[in-house]
Amino acid sequence: MCIEMFRTRIMLFGTAFVVWLCCSHLFGGADGQVTDPVEVTALHTFKQSLIDPNQNLSNWNRGDPCMSNWTGVLCFNMIMDDGYLHVEELLLQNMNLSGSLSPELHRLSYMKRLNVMWNKISGNIPKEIGNITSLILLLLSGNQLTGSLPEEIGYLPNLDRIQIDENQISGPIPKSFANLNKTMHFHMNNNSISGQIPPELSSLPELVHLLLDNNNLSGYLPPELANMPKLQIVQLDNNHFDGATIPATYGNMPHLTKFDLSNNNLNGTFPGIFSGLPQLQRLALANNSLSGSIPSNIWENRTSNGTKRLIVDLQNNMLSNISGSYNLPPNVTVRLQGNPICLNTNLVQFCGSQNENDSNIQSSTNSNVACFVQSCPPPYEYVPSSLVPCFCAVPLIVDYRLKSPGFSDFRPYTNLFEEYLTSRLELKAYQLDIATTPMWETGHRLGMYLKIFPVYIDNTHHLFNSSEVLRIRGLFTRWEIRDLKIFGPYEVLNFILLDPYKDADLSSSKSGISKVALIGIALGTIAGAVTLSAIVSHLILRLNTRKRHTSSRRHLCEYLTVTIICGGSKIYHDSPLFSS
Ligand SMILES: *[C@@H]1O[C@H](CO)[C@@H](O)[C@H](O)[C@H]1NC(C)=O
Ligand SMILES: *[C@@H]1O[C@H](CO)[C@@H](O)[C@H](O)[C@H]1NC(C)=O
Ligand SMILES: *[C@@H]1O[C@H](CO)[C@@H](O)[C@H](O)[C@H]1NC(C)=O
Ligand SMILES: *[C@@H]1O[C@H](CO)[C@@H](O)[C@H](O)[C@H]1NC(C)=O
Ligand SMILES: *[C@@H]1O[C@H](CO)[C@@H](O)[C@H](O)[C@H]1NC(C)=O
Ligand SMILES: *[C@@H]1O[C@H](CO)[C@@H](O)[C@H](O)[C@H]1NC(C)=O
Ligand SMILES: *[C@@H]1O[C@H](CO)[C@@H](O)[C@H](O)[C@H]1NC(C)=O
Ligand SMILES: *[C@@H]1O[C@H](CO)[C@@H](O)[C@H](O)[C@H]1NC(C)=O
Ligand SMILES: *[C@@H]1O[C@H](CO)[C@@H](O)[C@H](O)[C@H]1NC(C)=O
Ligand SMILES: *[C@@H]1O[C@H](CO)[C@@H](O)[C@H](O)[C@H]1NC(C)=O
Ligand SMILES: *[C@@H]1O[C@H](CO)[C@@H](O)[C@H](O)[C@H]1NC(C)=O
Ligand SMILES: *[C@@H]1O[C@H](CO)[C@@H](O)[C@H](O)[C@H]1NC(C)=O
């Protein structure tokens, strides 16, 4: 009787075993290791070297990183040839983390984006990061990192951007950085980087932003820098550059929009090189010791292309006159306060108090006058640019910041910016609203809140569906919105989901595993489990035969069912399957 019951049970248990194995794999049980174990170990080590006061990473000790929704760990959406899932990104921005960066990070050898911005991490940048050849974004801004820049980082073949601004990095810029032939952005401002700018950097073919302001750099300005064909923004202010001249080559950079050398030790006469920079919007040489006269060719021909503003800031130098025309075209501002030339009181337009500031007003055109407020209670709101009047919907809100836009007046770029974002996000124009006046923040960053509204279908649809929320959020948080040069890179400080979206099941985006990948894993697991359960069943039958005389059959059956087949796991102890 027991044998018969036993066979039935074994069949049931075989099934249960398969299900259990599958579940433990899919939902990250202790055995369900699908992330490369080398990377799992590296993540543990990485976490151990951090201090996490808010417990933002508390779920890093359960289950599998890629399958169990570890905060900030984003994995590739597929299993690689080695049979494992791999970490694609660490997104650990703004978590008040301190401690240090473990060199073990380099074991995340498929990682594309390392983002630990705006924390309090100290210690060195581990040179081992130079081994992560897949790295595209190295984002370490806003921490307390010290030590010098590892030469090894210069050999990252795919690096698009290096952001280490607002740390306490010292030492020189390694010459090896001249190898970064895919890098578009050097954001290294507000550190203590010293020494000379290596002339070798001039061979960087893709560099667009060279932000080295607020450092301890010194020496002369390498004329070769002008050879970088795509350079758009050069910020070298607040350093210790000296010398009598600014290289003449700098007058020959066709894409230059911003050039800042304020607060250095430049002496000598003012160079006559700035007339051939058609895109220039800001030229700042304030707080140096430049003397001589200012050639008016800087602004003379701006009228023809009048929409772009030009600010020329030459305050606090030793400049004594202007050669050429004193007539300033509209939208050109020249500041000369603190120069001997301003002893001549006739020059109000040059020496007047500073009333033109860089910040600007974005007029919002909201014409929902005819819509009843009470028909659209918060968090619902009328979509400002909707073509259908009084379309009431709940937006997604993005706290968004342009890190280093190539202009100093946003207004002429508003339309272009809206087109850029809506096309990259595949939205209709009316779905995007710049909800707050864009505000300039320290470091020439432009912050704003964006609202993104669902598409109008009919009067019963007021919300995004969850896949659309995931898609849009993913584009922002995974940095998949390709930069447009003029706007430069962006940061997402917060992606706000209002109440109606809070309940949406958005967890799948965390691990980034698609259904297809899950099915793949499940099939592999089932194949393995079937084999395993066959072996286990076979063992049990043999054991049963041997132990027949040592204990009562009934007892043996109970014992086997619970302890051997379930391997000590209590998962099925109370399930109906076992309550015979
Ligand atoms: C980290 O945890 C704190 C406290 O729970 C929370 O307020 C904060 O939003 C978390 N930060 C992130 C980036 O998840
Ligand atoms: C981070 O720490 C600072 C001070 O240590 C505190 O003021 C701030 O609220 C913290 N932020 C979070 C998100 O915990
Ligand atoms: C890291 O790169 C160095 C050379 O830059 C090499 O010697 C070392 O073996 C690499 N380590 C790993 C783990 O790939
Ligand atoms: C970038 O540098 C690598 C290594 O020096 C070289 O193999 C590659 O061809 C270069 N790419 C470009 C676009 O110059
Ligand atoms: C800047 O460099 C000088 C030497 O060139 C050094 O004496 C000084 O301490 C450095 N300052 C900082 C803040 O690193
Ligand atoms: C300009 O600065 C350099 C380096 O500090 C110095 O040698 C030179 O005498 C200075 N020239 C003038 C005109 O002050
Ligand atoms: C005006 O703009 C046109 C087209 O953008 C450009 O070709 C031309 O050089 C500009 N002229 C001046 C004086 O900047
Ligand atoms: C020039 O120096 C003065 C005084 O130190 C400072 O107030 C001003 O902000 C500086 N100007 C620029 C453009 O940095
Ligand atoms: C300004 O434009 C005129 C006419 O096109 C040209 O002759 C002159 O050289 C230009 N001046 C500068 C400083 O570019
Ligand atoms: C000055 O700039 C504003 C916007 O930035 C533009 O609307 C205006 O046409 C410009 N003025 C001239 C004379 O070009
Ligand atoms: C960089 O440092 C300067 C001087 O300390 C400071 O005025 C400026 O706000 C800092 N920039 C950023 C982006 O924090
Ligand atoms: C995934 O993690 C996020 C935050 O870390 C949490 O809000 C969410 O509920 C988690 N989802 C699941 C299924 O655990």
UniProtKB/TrEMBL annotation:
SMART domains, per the entry: LRR_TYP (SM00369)
GO molecular function, one term: protein serine/threonine kinase activity
Annotated Gene Ontology cellular component terms: membrane
Residues annotated as signal peptide: 1-32
UniProt xrefs under Gene3D superfamilies: Ribonuclease Inhibitor
InterPro entries, per the entry: Leu-rich_rpt, Leu-rich_rpt_typical-subtyp, LRR_dom_sf, LRR_N_plant-typ
Protein name: non-specific serine/threonine protein kinase
Organism: Camellia sinensis
